[in-house]
Design goal:
By secondary structure, this protein is an alpha/beta fold. It is built from 16 helices and 20 strands. It has an eight-stranded mixed beta sheet with strand order 8-7-6-11-18-19-5-20, sandwiched between helices. A two-stranded antiparallel ribbon has the order 1-4. It has a two-stranded antiparallel ribbon with strand order 2-3. Helix 8 packs across helix 12, helix 12 crosses helix 16 and helix 13 runs antiparallel to helix 16.
């Protein structure tokens, strides 16, 4: 009997014991009497609500090599077909394609050609696709629908380049939202989601997989959870933790103040930045804006709570309707595409991944990234080269040491968003 077991809490340590047989390429086989007793214990705990039994989710992968006669768009289409995209009923249905249009000035966001490939496949199956995102909390060009659409057009996204319309899901000022119950949620009772996202019949997440200063990396779960939250929803997720300033590292440049949309940062009498937590909403924009690592997340538990809330928001978005996820792992910059600039990639391009399971998809991408070499001269290389640097054996934690992306994946699995156990299938 093949049993893939994943714990909710205390059972995790048990999995580290030697009751698992060798890998057969797809699963682990329980063996001997000790393993049989383990299976019985798992069954008892399952009955008590302690764990879930699940098979590995299929994650499909193709590399970024474009050999003569084959474009990356064609490879993406083939990947989607192999992953089962055509099994979704799109006939006369609205399909939301959740994407990040990129902050103007940033050049690491996904090119609109990828979005067109997805939209064309939806239309070929009789669906009505539209590209969508929600407004942001912080300063920039995407905090209201008009500026947001201008930013999308500036970055090459338009009905002409993508073959479908753009709808900012939470409306003009980010207030057009729906309160969606979170089944099994621990932190969120009702997620505040952009209305247009919830009005769609089918949901597709097309995500640029890269680093992130608060969550470790941004992939499918973040694109869905944080990205589909209205402005109030984003504040709801961020509210558990607020950053602080290491005044010894502050250079008084004022960049953090310029990036704060809430007037929470000011200079003290020594021209050192300080954050007024009464005004701060915890969006973390200032962390990535500081070039000197002076702004940091003072509460690591708060980052974990942010990750958990994000997973719960993602579950609210996709529960009860068809959902499909694509991660493009190229130009893996250390920080989010929300910044008006992008630093050099920390690792080489990896490829394109697709799955019906966002948790398995993100874990597969993270593990693939961690198997890649570090690009010399990148922020990751710089961090590892510092005197006294601690190697966490994880490229994303080494890039942003206060982050722990695994807490998001673990919680996503716990609430039934997906599983961390996956089977990787190569598409040539």
């Amino acid at each position: 009997m093949i049993i893939i077991a994943k714990p909710f809490c205390k059972i995790k340590s048990f999995l580290k014991k030697s009751c698992w047989g060798p890998l057969d390429g797809k699963s682990r086989m329980l063996h001997n009497k000790k393993a049989e007793r383990a299976a019985a214990r798992f069954a008892r705990r399952l009955k008590e609500g302690g764990c879930v039994l699940m098979e590995p989710s299929k994650v499909y992968f193709t590399d970024m090599r474009a050999r003569p006669g084959t474009s990356l768009q064609q490879k993406l289409e083939k990947l989607m077909r192999r992953a089962g995209f055509e099994t979704i009923d799109f006939k006369d249905k609205y399909a939301a394609i959740k994407i990040h249009f990129g902050e103007p000035g940033n050049l690491s966001f996904l090119r609109p050609n990828f979005a067109k490939t997805v939209a064309d496949m939806v239309k070929a199956q009789g669906g009505k696709p539209f590209l969508t995102d929600c407004n942001t909390l912080y300063v920039g060009r995407r905090k209201n629908a008009l500026d947001h659409m201008d930013a999308a057009y500036e970055n090459g996204y338009s009905p002409f380049s993508t073959g479908c319309q753009i709808i900012i899901a939470d409306g003009l000022k980010g207030t057009d939202e729906v309160a969606v119950p979170v089944r099994g949620g621990q932190y969120i009772k009702n997620a505040l989601i952009g209305r247009a996202v919830m009005d769609a019949d089918v949901f597709i997440a097309l995500s640029h997989f890269k680093g992130h200063e608060c969550t470790g990396f941004g992939g499918a779960v973040k694109n869905v959870g944080m990205g589909c939250g209205s402005r109030a929803g984003k504040m709801d997720m961020h509210s558990s933790g607020k950053p602080s300033v290491d005044k010894a590292l502050c250079r008084s440049c004022g960049v953090c103040m310029k990036n704060c949309a809430h007037g929470a940062i000011s200079f003290d009498e020594n021209r050192k930045a300080g954050i007024d937590h009464a005004k701060c909403v915890g969006c973390g924009r200032c962390i990535g804006a500081c070039n000197f690592d002076a702004v940091y997340a003072a509460n690591d538990a708060a980052n974990d709570e942010l990750n958990c809330k994000m997973a719960e928001y993602a579950k609210a978005v996709v529960d009860g309707r068809p959902a499909f996820y694509i991660n493009i792992v190229n130009q893996v910059s250390p920080y989010c595409d929300c910044h008006g600039e992008n630093d050099a990639a920390i690792i080489p391009d990896v490829g394109m991944f697709a799955s019906f399971d966002p948790v398995a998809l993100d874990v597969a991408c993270a593990e693939a990234c961690n198997a890649m070499p570090v690009i010399p001269g990148s922020l990751l290389d710089e961090n590892l080269s510092r005197e006294g640097a601690c190697d966490h054996h994880d490229h994303f934690t080494n890039t942003s040491p206060e982050t722990n992306w695994k807490s998001c994946m673990e919680h996503g699995e716990k609430i039934g968003l997906g599983t961390q156990t996956y089977e990787l299938i190569l598409v040539k």
